[in-house]
Amino acid sequence: EVSTDDPETAFCTLANREELNPEEDSIHHCLYQFTRNETLTETNKLLCDVCTQRHCEPKNNIKSEKKYVYTNAKKQMLISLAPPILTLHLKRFQHAGFNLQKVNRHIKFPEVIDLAPFCTAKCKNVAEGNTKVLYSLYGVVEHSGTMRSGHYTAYVKMRAVNNHLSDLVLRGQSQASETEPVKGQWFHISDTHVQPVSVSKVLSSQAYLLFYERLL
Questions:
Q1: Higher model confidence: residue 210 or residue 103?
Q2: Which of 95, 118, 166, 204 is the most buried (most CB within 10 A)?
Q3: Would you state the pLDDT for residue 148?
Q4: Containing structural domain, residue 196
Q5: What is the pLDDT of residue 114?
Q6: What residue stretches are annotated with the USP domain (predicted)?
Q7: Looking at the domain assignment, is residue 62 inside a domain?
């Protein structure tokens, strides 16, 4: 969504992102880099409709040739609507010459994550005054192998029926104040094999997809 807000507030977030100091190789660092403020200059300048229109206005009854005007600009991608279910897809490949190579390093991710530093200050479905947008982890997809072959497995949390999540999906409103992870038992699923695992085992997995449900 293109924003035309006041430049003083257009890049403001629900929580101060500059206080994050995210750890390298963490999901917080990934989100911080993905939502960073970028400056568009030189060949990346932005086409300015207002400047172009002003340049093409007739002067002294002389019709000027239309010329598109480009200007320096700032760009930042922020979350404008906090979803009831948050899905994070990690890029697990990189270019190695003309080939693609899988990225195998571990990316740290938490049980509870706060999206407020990555949400616009005018996030549509966050109550005024709230400075936290919390999500609890409930599923992880892991890939083992290479770019040519491998195997997908999953970690899933089995928990009681979450009426709060239903309220979010149906009405888009949050009335809860939980700040702890939704309680439940984790299971590792590989084809037809299912076994209970500890949360530490889940958090040490090489995540490819992460699934969170909204708490607050």
A1: 210
A2: 118
A3: 79
A4: 79-171+180-215
A5: 95
A6: 1-215
A7: no
Non-local CB neighbours of 177 within 8 Å, separated by 6+ positions: 216
Q: Dihedrals φ, ψ of 148, to 5°?
A: -90, -30
- The answer to the question of residue 1 being in a domain is no
Burial of 168 (0-12, 13-18, 19+ CB in 10 A): buried
| DSSP structure class, residue 19 | G
What CA–CA distance (Å, rounded) separates 129 from 146?
Answer: 46
**What mean pLDDT do residues 174-191 have?**
77
**Which residue, chain included where needed, has tokens 């989100």?**
31
Residue 209 in any domain: the answer is: yes
Burial 127-145 (b: 16+ CB within 10 A, else e): eeebebbbbbbbbbbbbee
**Amino acid symbol at 176:** A
Tell me the pLDDT tens digit for each residue of 89-132. 998 887 777 777 888 889 999 999 999 999 998 888 888 888 89
Inside any domain, residue 197? yes
DSSP label of 94: E
C-alpha–C-alpha distance, residues 14 and 116, integer Å: 5
Domain CATH number, residue 145? 3.90.70.10
The two three-digit tokens of residue 11, written as one number? 């890049």
Domain count along the chain:
1
CB distance 137 to 110 below 8 Å: yes
56 DSSP 8-state letter: H
- Report the 10 Å Cβ neighbour count for 84: 19
Residues 6+ apart with CB under 8 A from 134: 112, 113, 114, 115, 178, 179, 214, 215, 216
